[in-house]
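Hey, I'm writing a tutorial for new members on how sequence and structure tokens pair up, and I'd like a real worked example in the thread rather than a made-up one. If someone can provide the structure for the chain below, I'll link this post from the tutorial.
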Amino acid sequence: MCKIDPIQNEYGEFLSESSTVDFDFNDEPENLRHLIPYASFWGIADDWEREQLAEKAPTHLKESLQKLIADNDGELDAWLAGVEASNPDPSDAYIAFSAMRMAADYM
């Protein structure tokens, strides 16, 4: 199963707009693994590419991502502002989850 399959119904044809990112599913905390499909879709490290995707997103998907981030804000803070934040070579998962959060902030 592709990691973005769980969001197929919600995102529909808009799924094809993202280049998606790959990362090791074991590199993020277990309590955030339900966000893997969203991090794969929105977790584009390139600021310009991610912002272009965010601008094209339908309003309901923007609102959905912002709510998802708000609902998981404490857990995201614990990881993204934790020990790995000072790692000079963070994991691909860390980068993807950080970029996903930046996408929500940009919206």
